[in-house]
Write a structure and sequence with these properties.
Helix content: 55-70%
GO cellular component, one term: plasma membrane
Subcellular location: Cell membrane
Keywords: Cell membrane, Membrane, Transmembrane, Transmembrane helix
Protein name: Cardiolipin synthase N-terminal domain-containing protein
Radius of gyration: 36 Å
Number of strands: 0
Main location: membrane
Structural class: mainly alpha
Oligomer: single chain
Length: 135
Amino acid sequence: MLRALIYLLPLALTIYAFIDCLNTPEDETKHLPKVAWVFIILLFWIVGPIVWLAAGKLRTAPAGGGTPSEWHRAHRQKWVAPDDNPDFLKSLRDENEKDESVLKDWEADLRRREEELKRQDGEGGTPGDPAPPKG
């Protein structure tokens, strides 16, 4: 059992540090960019996770009272489903009204053309028919 623990403990620590590093916002990493920390954790899988946990992440709250990630969570606009989003529903309504006005204009144009065709039929022939031969 102890022999298995010798292999499982560093593996578990590496997995924990890797996931912790990936979930940490970029502005909370110390000394190196987040990509460099990921490589350190994966390449030096025994020492890398310990270094990450000791020196890689900002662990104390700044003087402002909250961590940067808390600030981001508080000021991030929350995603709303389209059914519940009033702006989206309003845009659909506006688009529907615009489509209806285009449809009404199109129907009015069709009626006008039909009336012209009826008038021309009454005067004799359709506009596309060739003139009857004289004589």
